Amino acid sequence: MKRICSLLVLLMVLSLVSGAMAADFPKEPIRLILPMAPGGSTDVTARAFAEVAKNYCDQPFVIVNMPGASGNTGIEEVVRAKPDGHTLLFFHTMALSTFHTGVLKRSTFETLEPVASVAEAPNTIQVHATSPWQTLEDLAADAKSRPGKITWAIGGIGGTTHFTTAGVTDGLGMEIRLVVYQGGAERRAALAGKQVDVVTGTIGEGWDFYQEGTVRYLAVTGDRRVNVLPDVPALGELGVNAIGLTYYLWAPKGTPPEVVAALQDIVEKVCADPKFIELNENYFQAIAFRKGDELLAQMREQDAIIADLAEKLGLAE
Fold it and tell me: pTM for this structure?
């Protein structure tokens, strides 16, 4: 009987401590670790998030850019951080792919605690407006008739544009020749100058040229068309399962559930804020708040696609 009473007291104490921890959170500024240099879409999205979060959190979110080792430097900073919710990772789908390409030795599911998804930025398949391909089916048919002849620009081996491209070419049975450009601006210029035939990139990367009539979008990732390109089919319509960009927040493994819940509450409020919604729309992104089982299911689905493609591409470690 004494043992049972002692156990009940211990549980009550732990419950009170956890409740107090959540009530006191956050006690200090929250560091948002970005494993890339300033200026890209992830950096812009994170800074927009931090700006709007001021309205819903007593402490500021401080952006810390930590590029290096294909994202590993920033990820490891969060893995080693104290699991109290004051150091978080703000990263996109590449947080999943880096494990399957050997950059990380352990899966982020093992080393980090998923908090929430924030927004999505679809990748697109772009060609020059003077190209003979009016549809993705046209491109696929031509590629099959001329294996390895069509040049296709991506942002790097093992990156999201590579996996998007691989999903398309694998799904449609295309054999193409990859050309790597490190930045979206370089890929855009190469397509406009007809140095490559096809580019995989975000909507925003090709938007100016699209409005000028220089670029044609053939497809967007996902299952649904996007509002700004209502006539451009989603890859899901064509039976192609290819990933786009989803922005996630992760905490160190072992972060108390009460703190994770408090963070999720902040993220949900930010994602419902009209200013944050507008900022994302300006960058051709859509709000995509998920948490709990819905978040894990979406992450696992993306992870399975990446794992399969990494194996087919010979990137898996």
Answer: 0.83
For tokens 């696929």, the residue is 140
Cα 103 → chain centroid: 17
Q: Who's near 201: CB < 8 A, 6+ residues apart?
A: 123, 124, 126, 155, 161, 184, 187, 188
Task: Write the CB contacts of 267 (distance below 8 Å, at least 6 apart in sequence).
Answer: 115, 116, 118, 249, 289, 291
CA dihedral over 131, 133, 136, 138, signed as positive or negative: negative
**What H or E segment, with its residue span, contains residue 23?**
helix 2-24
Which residue bears the tokens 């967007």?
Answer: 220
How confident is the chain (317 residues) per 10-residue block, as mean pLDDT?
A: 50 46 85 89 93 97 91 92 98 84 78 96 96 97 97 90 95 96 85 96 91 97 92 94 92 98 98 96 93 95 90 81
Distance from C-alpha of 168 to C-alpha of 288, rounded to nearest angstrom: 23
